[in-house]
Design a protein that fits this description.
The structure holds two protein chains of two kinds. Chain A is an alpha/beta fold. Chain A folds into three domains: 30 residues; 63 residues, 2,3-Dihydroxybiphenyl 1,2-Dioxygenase, domain 1 (Roll), CATH 3.10.180; 53 residues, Signal recognition particle alu RNA binding heterodimer, srp9/1, CATH 3.30.720. Helices cover 28% and strands 26% of the residues of chain A. Chain A is built from four helices and eight strands. Chain A has a four-stranded mixed beta sheet with strand order 1-4-3-2. In chain A, strands 5-8-7-6 form a four-stranded mixed beta sheet, with no helix packed on it. In chain A, a hairpin with a 5-residue loop joins β7 and β8. Chain A starts with a helix and ends in a 13-residue tail after the last strand. In chain B, the strands form two sheets. Chain B has a four-stranded mixed beta sheet, covered by helices on one side. In chain B, a hairpin with a 3-residue loop joins β5 and β6. Chain B has three domains: 32 residues, no CATH class; 73 residues, 2,3-Dihydroxybiphenyl 1,2-Dioxygenase, domain 1; 59 residues, 2,3-Dihydroxybiphenyl 1,2-Dioxygenase, domain 1. Classes of the chains: A alpha/beta, B alpha/beta. β1 of chain A pairs antiparallel with β4 of chain B.
């Protein structure tokens, strides 16, 4: 980026570009930088190529309560909280490099239409999962008896939404083949 | 952002800042334009490292006929169906042996959908009856490769996907086989840009 900006300043100094073009070019470059790489070519078939989860949109009575719970308990990072009824909670890789986020928000003016499908729980991976440390950390937060099994635990958040936390050993799509 | 660049350029043109200062200021600004604000970062209290989440593991999607639900996601997102049972099937976001997009750790599996048909009034795994939740996961956003909104919109319509519509600056919404709201975007829609 520094080389690019240096070259751009040079072009401005030499009169090759004007003030407006300079600013617009740099603004575009910043946006592209933030956008990161659109990795991996799309497949030849008609369907899209899924890279991963982008976000989960979580509606609840008071987003601040959910925000504080998820950020303090699971280390999610709060972004774009303008005190306007919603916040993003980032986790995983960098936001523009495959990171996931949970959007916690208050109900909008138009409630979502009821559907026949429901996301009944979400499971999150914890790297270097240590059952003893996880149980101790949960207990310190008042979760004395999480359900589930070793390395795959369920707790309920402040709005009784079912959360699962697990290791790669216990929760892995391909591991299910051995059931 | 553009106004900031213009201000700094004016300062340079008037001799108020050096070329070096201009270069450094603009480089930092351009590369951190969408970074987390100090205020927001400070708002997140420290968590116990033992509970720090690395990635979404799976999304448990319950519907009347899991095969119908799974076939929709397989068709639209080219997802394989693995380990089917009488009540569910898993759809990993990649192939066996691949790492999740953006992840280098070896103990983080591919995120996957588990599409199931089960009675939610039954107790959760090993526990008591499920309490009624006041929260709802009212839509899910997925990241796809090479996202070009107009092209993807045409592709989706050609596949017979219903209710395809624009969503904000960077994404599309649609409804799946059961009317559930699905959003797709490229990586430009992320925790820093969404809702900014």
């Amino acid at each position: 980026m520094e080389k690019f900006v240096d070259r751009l300043i040079g072009q401005f100094e030499n009169g090759q570009i004007g003030r407006r073009e300079f600013c617009q070019t740099l603004t575009t470059a910043a946006a592209v930088f933030a956008g990161g790489l659109e990795a991996n070519a799309a497949p030849a078939g008609k369907g899209l190529k899924m890279l991963g989860l982008n976000h989960l949109s979580y509606q609840c009575p008071d987003y601040r309560k959910a925000r504080d719970f998820y950020s303090s308990m699971f280390g999610m990072q709060v972004t774009n909280d303008k005190g306007m009824g919603r916040a993003n909670l980032a986790f995983g890789p960098a936001p523009d490099k495959g990171g996931n986020f949970l959007v916690v928000h208050n109900p909008g003016a138009n409630p979502p239409k009821p559907t026949e499908a429901v996301i009944d729980h979400v499971c999150y991976t914890i790297s270097n999962y240590d059952e003893g440390k996880v149980r101790a950390a949960l207990k310190a937060r008042g979760f004395d008896n999480p359900t589930g099994r070793d390395e795959s635990r369920h707790v309920y958040d402040p709005y009784n939404y079912d959360i699962q936390i697990a290791s790669a050993r216990q929760e892995n799509a391909f591991r299910r083949e051995g059931r | 952002m553009e106004a900031f660049f213009a201000t700094k350029l004016d300062e340079f043109a008037k001799g108020k800042i050096s070329r070096r200062a201009l270069l450094e200021t603009l480089t930092v600004a351009a590369t951190t334009a969408y970074a987390v604000t100090p205020t927001a970062a400070a708002a997140a209290p420290a968590s116990d490292p033992a509970l720090k989440i690395t990635l979404c593991n799976h999304i448990s999607y319950n519907c009347p006929d899991f095969k119908k639900g799974a076939d929709w996601y397989s068709k639209v997102f080219n997802l394989d169906q693995v380990a089917p049972s009488k009540i569910d099937v898993a759809l990993p976001f990649g192939k066996r042996g691949e790492k999740p997009f953006g992840v280098t750790a070896n103990d983080v599996p591919l995120t996957h959908l588990i599409i199931r048909t089960r009675d939610l009034n039954r107790p959760a795994e090993g526990g008591a009856a499920r309490p009624k939740s006041q929260a709802v996961m009212e839509h899910i956003g997925y990241t796809v490769a090479d996202f070009d909104r107009e092209k993807v919109k045409a592709d989706l319509k050609a596949m017979g996907v219903e209710n395809v519509r624009d969503g904000g600056l960077y994404s599309l919404h649609m409804t799946d086989a059961y009317g559930y709201d699905v959003q797709i975007s490229g990586v430009a829609n992320n925790a820093l840009t969404d809702g900014a």
